[in-house]
Amino acid sequence: MSNVFMGMPTLPVFGMGNLHIEEPFPAAAHRELGNTQMRANLRHATHTIRDKRLKVVAELPDWEELRDAGSATKNHVMANLPALLEEFEKNFTARGGTIHWARDAHEANKIVADLIREQGTTEVVKVKSMATQEIGLNEYLEERGISAFETDLAELIVQLGHDKPSHILVPAIHKNRTEVRDIFLKEMPNVDPDLTDEPRKLAMAARAHLRRKFLSAKVAVSGANFALADSGTLAVVESEGNGRMCLTLPETLITVMGIEKLLPGKEDLEVFMQLLPRSSTGERMNPYTSLWTGVTEGDGPQNVHLILLDNGRTAALADKYGRTALNCIRCSACMNVCPVYERTGGHAYGSTYPGPIGAILSPLLTGIKSEENSSLPYASSLCGACYDACPVKINIPEILVHLRGEDVDSKRGAKKLPSQMDLMMKGASWAFSSGKHLALLEKGLPLGKLAAGRDKKIKALPGIAAGWTQSRDMLAPPTQSFRDWWKKDHTPVAPTHKQEN
Amino acid sequence: MSAKEEILARITSALHDAPVPAPIPREYRKGSDMPRAELIELLVDRLEDYKAHVDVVEQEELPATIAERLRDAASYVVPHGIDEAWLADAALANDGRRRIDAPGAVLSVTDLDETGAVLTSSAVSIAESGTIVLDGTPSQGRRAISLVPDHHVCVVPVSSIVRLLPEALPRMDISRPLTWISGPSATSDIELERVEGVHGPRRLDVIIVKGL
Ligand code: SF4
User: Fold this and answer.
1) Residues paired with residue A290 on neighbouring β-strands, in sequence order
2) What is the ipTM of this complex?
3) Structural element, H or E, at residue A291
4) How far is CA B55 from CA B64, B87, B139, in A?
């Protein structure tokens, strides 16, 4: 098949599933800010991982060179995606695997459900995967009488707790050990009633709970971290061995993967397998990485499927300022350094992807016009820490600003403006167009002083600025403007020493 | 139009601006000349950091070391291609504990679950990250045997150790099922406290063999 234009409409087709948030970020963040337990857990977690990461990154003298290579490789992949996908399909298929293509979440879910039904089973084991979370696979299967067991410890905690993940690497990080024990006692069949909250005991309870499932499962579902085009190889990176169990023991393996996960070839693993574990868990290498190429006789699943998922990725690719968001390797480094994420937690971002990457990726996949997602690009202080941390150098702040612009434009187009934002912008251009205007505005400064309480902080601002003060206090402006102060304290004096020059 | 055709058409139209990315710079370290003794030291340091137990032995000491590491196992599995000489220690002779996994005579998952330990060789090891790669060749066996038993004894020939990942990849046959192991199974999902051993082997013993 050629990759030339085939008469398709050129409008981007956006993604669906767990990408749309239900509540605008400012409202969700406001509520989550009240959860002090979660904030404390999160702060501890993000800071610990962050410190570990800095330590192992500092060990590599060529870290920046690896980042440069990683970033350029991903740009190369995106620019050559059709050819690489074709190459991958050819090689994976030649090795006995089967490829399916899914335009959106619904189509992907249906393919998975049909494949499971073909095996005559109603139970599957699952490896933690962002893609299946994004398409809402577990819920879809549940509705059709198929139970999907999450096997990653954190995912299991979230699943048993009827909760939602709050971090892409450590999804249950908002729960402390006592909360985990309570969930296990309540939801895990045959659990020891004397279970303590010691992490080792809890991990062993999970081991016992899942062991029988692993050993008897006929079908497993996984995601993939990387796919190598030139060999048709898939890779899964994990720690606990639950991934290996799922990828090795069942007869049927179904993998769901976004089309952006490709790498040209084996050589690229040398870059990405150095960048990913260090950025992610702050380890030199994760305990287990599994690589498989289609079917290997006598080793592992003999019925191997891969679903290549679009679900809005092509829409993100069509945004030439935002497309580098697809370079993301889901390491989670950006959320661990983000001051906004640290305070609001992952739930506030509403969709599968939290933190700085979520703030750009979700609206790119769904379109900025998706009503609630349009608030996500504002969920940032633009401090730039995420950009510095990102192993593939995604310029998140730049994309955030671009998406804010898109949002404003789209609302203006929809005649929702002049909004406060527009008025503020107009006001700003009026103020800065003339020194007199600015001076006039500054006369209003002492009012700010009044709005602030005794602690010299303004706790609530009206209008669009309310979004800002909902999650932070703002220092009150000074009582007098710089201009006023200058005028008072700097009565012009004759430049006496000028002649000496 | 099939889903594939439609997705490829969407991509083509998304790339309407025909981006030409910059060439991929590969300025990172590709090779090293670390002396063998230092390579061993580095690998040992990394593996111990992951809480693996490491022995560094001469070739003649290998059978006795293997016997020692397998001493507590009620039973153990070996892949069919394991070097017979490695199992030559008297403590392992006529060993009722030994199970051999071979093509055509594979152990069931239940058999493996009841087996205490596994002994395998390895294909290549990366000192800088403390990573051992198994590639499913006859001395390493299919993936399940090094996964289900709770204790993995893994032999690492010194000649298979390199310093950097870019040096290791050319030594891997990518079309084989590969398992990269860096320490025993571990989780940090509860309050980030590391717990060794969840679903994979909870104990990893590595025997680095000089002269091999
Ligand atoms: S955007 Fe960068 S830092 Fe954030 S998860 Fe993706 S790869 Fe990691």
Assistant:
1) A236, B179
2) 0.96
3) strand A288-293
4) 12, 17, 19
- List the Cα angle A229/A232/A233 in 5-degree steps: 105
Q: At B37, which helix (H) or strand (E)?
A: helix B36-49
Strand partners of residue A123: A147
Cβ proximity of B127 and B34 under 8 Å = yes
Distance of CA A113 to the CA centre of its chain: 26
* CA-based torsion, A328, A330, A333, A334: positive or negative: positive
For residue A114, what are its two tokens?
């049909």
Strand A233-238 with A288-293, pairing: antiparallel
Residue B202, in any domain of the structure: yes
Residue A160 — pLDDT band, cuts 50, 70, 90?
Answer: very high
Q: Which of A329, A396, A337, A340 is nearest to A364 (CA)?
A: A396
What are the tens digits of pLDDT across the range A134-154?
A: 999 999 999 999 999 999 899
Which residue in chain A is spatially nearest to B185 when comparing CA positions? A240
CB contact under 8 A, A299 and B130: no
Which CATH number do you get for residue B45? Answer: 3.40.50.10420
Q: How far apart are CA A409 and CA B49, in angstroms?
A: 53
Q: Which domain holds residue B148?
A: 34-210
Q: How many domains are contained in chain B?
A: 1
Q: What angle do CA B169, B170, B173 make, to 5 degrees?
A: 85
CA-wise closest residue to B42 among B150, B125, B148, B141? B125
Task: Please tell me if the CB atom of residue A332 comes closer than 6 angstroms to any atom of ligand 1.
Answer: yes
Q: Tell the residue nearest (CA) to atom 6 of ligand 1.
A: A328
The answer to whether the predicted template modeling score (pTM) of the entire model surpasses 0.80 is yes
Question: Tokens for B95?
Answer: 């060993």
Does A68 contact B at CB distance below 8 Å? yes
What does the pLDDT look like over B81-90, one tens digit per residue?
Answer: 999 999 999 9
* Chain B interface, best mutation among A100, A286, A288, by max B CB count within 10 A: A288
Q: Is residue B8 part of a domain?
A: no
- Taking the C-alpha atoms of residue A382 and residue A90, their distance in angstroms, rounded to an integer, is 43
- Phi and psi dihedrals of B11, rounded to 5? -65, -45
For A264-371, where are the alpha helices, taking DSSP H only?
266-280, 313-318, 333-337, 339-344, 355-366
Task: Name which of A172, A231, A323 is nearest B174 (Cβ-Cβ).
Answer: A231
In a domain, B179, yes or no: yes
